[in-house]
Amino acid sequence: MSISTFSYVPVVLLLLPAATPAASELTLVVDLQPVHELLQFVDQRLASIYPIIQNFKSTITSDPLGITASWRTSDICSYRGFYCDNPPDNKSAITVGSIDFNGFRLGAPTLEGFLDMLPDLALFHANSNEFEGTVPSGVAKLPYLYELDLSNNRLTGPFPTVVLGMPGLTFLDLRFNQFTGSVPGQIFVQNLNALFLNDNAFDRLPLDNLGISHILYLTLADNRFTGPITPGILKSLATLNEVLFLNNNLTGCLPYELGLLREATVIDIGDNQLTGTLPLSLSCLTKVEQLNLAGNQLHGGVPEAICRLGLGNLANLSLSGNYFNNVGPWCRTMIERGVLDVRNNCIQKLPSQRPVEECARFFGHMGTCPRMWSYSYIPCKNPHSAPTTAPSP
Ligand SMILES: *[C@@H]1O[C@H](CO)[C@@H](O)[C@H](O)[C@H]1NC(C)=O
Ligand SMILES: *[C@@H]1O[C@H](CO)[C@@H](O)[C@H](O)[C@H]1NC(C)=O
Ligand SMILES: *[C@@H]1O[C@H](CO)[C@@H](O)[C@H](O)[C@H]1NC(C)=O
Question: What is the pTM of this model?
Fold first, then answer.
């Protein structure tokens, strides 16, 4: 169907044959004999995005669920995936305020010219499609956009820095794409509540303390991050509820600033290349329920103060696959309770430990950590309060 007359005709009439056909006949007329018809829209805002949607539809390369078949008439609010609402700047207007393409499996070479051309959009959710390209640079001009979910697509290129110019954005989900390169530090100090970047090919974290972040949920797992987790980045993430660094190539020692994540309930830094001992500051993590440091090269004794977190919220402390060589009575209690997992370490007399030779080899080549003083520093007034007597075994 042609849209060429469209933009010149702000108020529009549906041009019909003299005798109005029944709806089903009308469909046939439109489908079989495309004419320069004029469509009628309930609002001018819908009229002006109609050509944008039709143009995007023409770029769709795959649509196994037949979604776009519904993107035909002037009734845009009935299209699958489109949701209408009254825009904030005019409560009597009607516009597309939200798009939810989750699971539609639509393919298109780019979202440019579509996502960035829907001026009243507040939410764009497109999980599990096959969109390519990157985040269109024009999205920064969308004044109401606050949730952007492009997870599980085929987006590529560097981190889409366009989102740094979007102070209103609170939710950014770029999981399961093919983004590469560094993650800019500014993204941590925007107004984002949730930042999901896992399962890409990012390789560099910001190093500096950039200010205080508002992020509650941060997932950086399954990328190719290298280098250390710096004190600066941990300081700026003090509000975090969940932080997932799992399965990267992070190196260096654990900074005591990890113990400053006082709101965190899940901290997962498993399967990296971290080394050094556990900072005592971890005993300040009184809200943590899941703490995973398995699969690194951590060593030394497991501090009793950390195991005592198991008397509170800590339900799973996973330290397996490291080189720890000592546990005290509280830690043994937590092993018995199934809270602490220290399998595949170097703790003599416990079952399922590494061979003695392997441990000896590791201890022969152990490095040291900077700021050694900081490993016994406890940056909180009330770490999990120590009962006066040790547990009975
Ligand atoms: C608000 O929207 C209505 C419906 O589109 C329109 O008629 C009216 O002119 C708009 N008001 C302003 C102030 O733009
Ligand atoms: C970590 O680095 C090693 C060696 O460079 C590489 O083989 C491995 O794939 C990397 N792992 C991740 C998760 O990036
Ligand atoms: C504890 O956490 C580890 C690492 O995340 C996980 O593999 C394991 O299944 C968890 N155990 C329980 C009992 O939830």
Answer: 0.84
